[in-house]
Amino acid sequence: MGGHGPTILRHAGGVRLAHLTWAIAGGWLVASGLGIHETLPAWASHLLGGHLVLVTWHGYIGDMLALALLLATFFVRNGLSRFLGAIMQFHRADAAWPLALLRALLHPGQQPVLPRHGGRFDPAQRLVFLIVVGSFALLVMTGLAFNFIPTNIRLLFAWTVRIHLATAWVLIAAVGVHIIAGTGLLPTHRGVARAMFGDGRVRIGLARRLWPGWTARRLENKNSRKA
Amino acid sequence: MTSSIRRRNCTRSRAQTALRRASCVLLVATAFGGTAFAQLFDFAHSPRAASFQIESPTAAANIRSPVAINVALHGATLGKPVDGLDHLHISVDGGEAIPVYAAPIPPLQLAPGRHTLTMDVAGPDHRPLTATKTVTFTVMP
User: Fold this and answer.
1) Exposed site from A18, A34, A70, A141, fewest CB < 10 Å?
2) Structure ipTM
3) Which strands make up the sheet holding B113-122, listed edge to edge?
């Protein structure tokens, strides 16, 4: 996981801890949701505690995560606002980035060349995060709606369940892409897992390849502080 | 030229700020509004008039495995939550409750001896619509 050469801090301890907490809670919600929907095999649902445990804890953890989101909007408003700002910026030139990534993945022998961008997150990452945030917001909305939609209004309840399920699949797909990139499975992203699951640092060469503008700004700030 | 770039940047930054604010408002409204609404207007969980009878196995019956289960439902329809329908929770001898979404209920393979069947009807939100009923019977060798 380590790698050689100089490194740069990508994620501070608080961010890594929050990410881990959300990953565990989100992982449980996905697993229990699949269990409730009987997408998991019976033995897996049994292993997770069975139908009643899955139903109870899916709702409970979901409500807790919604509450955490509410608290975050009050207590880490700046961080949340910075994150939303960082993922909501798109420029026409960014469209070339995912294509260049695809080209780099299809030609693993060559040195990957990715177009320059100025974002804290790369354009593909921004798109994935936008899908994650949007689908998560819709999941929270529909999940909370289960608490107050009368079950005898069958059609409304059924459509809320359908939207919740469809949105969950979108989120699972987006998180799947995030996991593939974030664990460093792609040759272009090798060593990136250390930023979230290690000491929070990445090799400068890797940072320059994936987030050139952000890296330049970070190094400039660091140098100006030194001076 | 410079002023036009500045104006464009300013418009973009204003749009981004508005988008950011709208997202924050949406997140707060979602989390806070939804929870508050759920607490204040808990009308969803006023019990629906649903009931059921376990027709077989009957109490104290001596039967052979596989055990057929027949239930008469009133005010509830079996089906998937995705269709807004209800389901049964069935548990044998205090074990894990198994959801049953469709009739006929699959017969139970049980070892000889006394057994207790516990059952309730749950709505599409998985909350119980009825009280739990139990029936004890004996499976003969």
Assistant:
1) A18
2) 0.76
3) B62-63, B133-139, B113-122, B87-92, B98-100
Please give the distance of CA B92 from its chain centroid, rounded to a whole number: 20
Residue A107 binned pLDDT confidence (cut-offs 50, 70, 90) = confident
Tokens describing residue A128: 């994935």
Q: Using an 8 Å CB-CB cutoff, list residues of chain A that contact chain B.
A: 36, 46, 50-52, 55, 63, 66-67, 69-70, 73, 77, 80-81, 84-85, 88-89, 133, 137, 140-141, 144-152, 154-158, 161-162, 165
- For residue B93, the model assigns a pLDDT of 96
Chain A contact for B20 (CB, 8 A cutoff):
yes
Indicate the angle between helix axes B2-28 and A51-75, nearest 10 degrees.
140
B97 touches chain A (CB under 8 A): yes
A83 phi, psi to nearest 5 deg: -65, -45
DSSP state of A153: S
Q: Which residues contact B37 (CB under 8 A, 6 or more apart)?
A: A144, A148
Instruction: Please state which of the ranges A3-7, A95-99, A147-151, B60-64 shows the lowest mean pLDDT.
Output: A3-7
The Cα A24–Cα A210 span in angstroms is 26
The Cα B132–Cα B13 span in angstroms is 59
* Strand spans (E) along B15-112: 51-56, 62-63, 70-74, 87-92, 98-100
Helices (H), A76-153: 77-87, 96-106, 123-145
Coil, helix or strand at residue A34: helix
Q: What is the pLDDT of residues A50-68, one digit of tens each?
A: 999 999 999 999 988 888 8
Closest by Cα among B108, B109, B133, B111 to B120? B133
* Residue A94 binned pLDDT confidence (cut-offs 50, 70, 90): confident
Q: What are the residue ranges in chain B where pLDDT is below 70?
A: 1-47
